[in-house]
Amino acid sequence: MTRACLFPFEIFDRGDPMSVLFTQTMRAMRADHPKYLITGKLLILLVMAVWGYWFFASSMVLYETSAECRLELRPAPMRVESELSGTVVRHNLELGRHVQRGEVLLVLDGRRLQLQRQTVAAEAQLLETNVVANRRRLDALAEALVHLRRVARLKRVENEAQVRGVESTSRQAQREQQAGQRLAAAGLLADIDAARLAGEEQRSRALLEAEQVRLEREGVDQNQAEARLQAEVLELEAEVAAFEAQIQVLQRRLAEYDFRLARLQLTAPSDGVLAAVGQFPVGAFLDEGETIATLLPRGQLTATAEFEPRQALGRIGVGQSARIKLDGFPWTQFGYLPARVTAIAGEVREARVHVEMALEDAASYGAPLQHGQPGLVEIEVERISPAQLLWRMLGKVALGEQKKPAGERR
């Protein structure tokens, strides 16, 4: 008995006439409608051609994503810190207030420093007075030394003239004594006259020696007086030099006091907005190094992100485009924030590579932008075809299989 046919395409028994009839019917239908077969084949070829073109000729954008992205202000926010400790006497700290560069934000008590500075200034003034007085004495000594040397020169000229006069007298007495001796030997001169001439010659010689000794003594006295003046000058110069050295030390102390007094006034380092302020009422004590405010300077917002080395090194470069999704602002409503890579760190720190980006067309972004906003960034690193991507994936799979231990592959 023939079994029932559940499906029209089921294979019937060979002796069944219904099977022969079904086969002939299908052949007749193919012979009557060949255009359906051709159309189907063409559609299949067209789909394969389009798919092949897309697979080999089209390009796909590959992105490297970092979940650690935030907007930052350039220049970076500045912290205003106290360089000295002291008591607050006045402050002008208001959150969100716009300030100008150099504007005073807080003032510390500086009365003690002022008193110390006044004491040091008085000491310096006294030393400067002593220096002026000693310099006047030096000028007087220098003038006295000039006069002493002039008088000594004139006295020396006078003494030399006197010595020449005595020498002339001595030579004349010597000649007369020699002539008297000759006359006495010839009997033409009495002995008493010859003795008188000899005595005059001896007296003239003694006078000459006395004049020479006096001239030498006056020269020694002159040298001693000049040496005393010069010693006094040197002593005064040393005293002036010591005073001037002390004045320089005091001036450095005054400069240090001025520096510290200037640091008692904490000013804004730049134009900007006070993003954070501390609570320092009048009379509160402020420690050295304590932060009183955080200033957001006027600048441009940029984006920074941290990538793993395998993502960044050799793949991310300057000029590549990026898109940022800010947390709190759905990208389906606000879209992406366009950016472009401006710098990439050349060194890995804490297993991360730092990347900086400049925002592009930030004004058209629908949401407000602010320093510190977190988000997610995607950087376009490559455009490849699906075939290249598939080939790369197969290569990674093969490489992963090769790296597996032999026991795991089995």
Verbal overview:
By secondary structure, the chain is an alpha+beta fold. It folds into four domains: 17-50, no CATH class; 60-75 and 299-402, Elongation Factor Tu (Ef-tu), domain 3; 78-109 and 265-293, RNA polymerase II/Efflux pump adaptor protein, barrel-sandwich hybrid domain (OB fold (Dihydrolipoamide Acetyltransferase, E2P), Beta Barrel); 111-263, Helix Hairpins. The chain is built from eight helices and 14 strands. Strands 1-10-13-12-11-14 form a six-stranded antiparallel barrel. Strand 12 (337-344) and strand 13 form a beta hairpin. The longest helix is centred in the middle third of the chain and has 75 residues, at 111-185. It starts with 16 loop residues before the first helix and ends with a helix. The model is unreliable at 1-15 and 406-410 (pLDDT under 50).
